[in-house]
Structure to design on (296 residues):
């Protein structure tokens, strides 16, 4: 059980590390804490926090930095959400006052509203795709062997893509293939659909199609599009308010990731700094963005 003073020490370490990015030592804490205690007392509290796994020592200094467990404890137990003001409630109501036809449209609007309210760049994630199910599949002929593949999922989303069928694939074969897809795969999760595309479905299609590979590729492509995890960005230009002239290249790389629809890889359960932060992944593709975090 942590004491009130140890909680104050943990909170201040997280806040200080958020602002500076540097390990926090006992002398710095002695000047920052709202209570007057000796450096030795603070070191004892830091040792207790380290024993609990809430902070850790770096190799480069005698200071401490928050651990993943420490951030999690901070978010779960020490953060007190601020009350939403009447003006903010009115802005949210106005923002959602229009007509929306897809869940993703609501999620995208959420990013814009959040950005307007906070003056930050906001990123919102679309609905979880893990449990989405296939509810329907159709091909609409457009002539010259071109078709539009339409796939419907259980959250109401409709994915469509244009394809050119191989010349050897006839319309009768296509209709039979569509029936197989709907009979065998509708009602299954998208993950189960992908598994069956690799195992059972090719054998069924071979009974009715001389060359089912083209059709399997077509369905697989639109399925992958439906199963992609989408993210939406509001207020891209707000990044300019928080980066200096020396950060231009870093900003360019981050905007390129957004424009390419490549969501930054984040460890959602490990906020890296401060009350509302998550770190961008340390993977090689995002190594240049290590000092940047996402608001949650």
């Amino acid at each position: 059980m942590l004491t009130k003073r140890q909680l104050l020490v943990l909170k201040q370490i997280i806040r200080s590390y958020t602002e500076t990015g540097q390990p926090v030592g006992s002398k710095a804490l002695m000047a920052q804490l709202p209570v007057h205690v000796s450096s030795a007392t603070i070191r004892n509290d830091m040792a207790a926090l380290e024993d609990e796994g809430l902070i850790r020592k770096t190799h480069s200094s005698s200071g401490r930095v928050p651990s993943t467990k420490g951030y999690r404890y901070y978010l779960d137990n020490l953060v007190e959400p601020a009350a939403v003001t009447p003006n903010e409630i009115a802005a949210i109501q106005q923002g959602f006052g229009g007509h929306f036809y897809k869940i993703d449209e609501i999620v995208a609007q959420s990013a814009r509203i959040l950005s307007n309210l906070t003056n930050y760049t906001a990123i919102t994630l679309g609905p979880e795709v893990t449990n989405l199910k296939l509810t329907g599949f159709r091909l609409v002929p457009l002539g010259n062997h071109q078709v539009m593949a339409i796939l419907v999922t259980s959250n109401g989303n409709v994915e469509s893509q244009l394809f050119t069928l191989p010349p050897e694939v006839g319309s009768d074969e296509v209709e039979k293939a569509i029936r197989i897809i709907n009979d065998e795969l509708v009602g299954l999760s998208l993950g189960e659909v992908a598994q069956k595309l690799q195992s059972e479905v090719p054998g069924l299609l071979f009974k009715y199609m001389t060359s089912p590979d083209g059709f399997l590729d077509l369905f697989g492509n639109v399925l992958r599009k439906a199963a992609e995890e989408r993210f939406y960005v509001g207020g891209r230009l707000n990044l300019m308010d928080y980066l200096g002239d020396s950060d231009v290249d870093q900003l360019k790389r981050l905007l390129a990731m957004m424009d390419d629809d490549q969501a930054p890889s984040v460890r959602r359960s490990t906020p890296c700094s401060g009350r509302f932060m998550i770190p961008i992944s340390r993977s090689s593709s995002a190594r240049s963005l290590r000092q940047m975090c996402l608001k949650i």
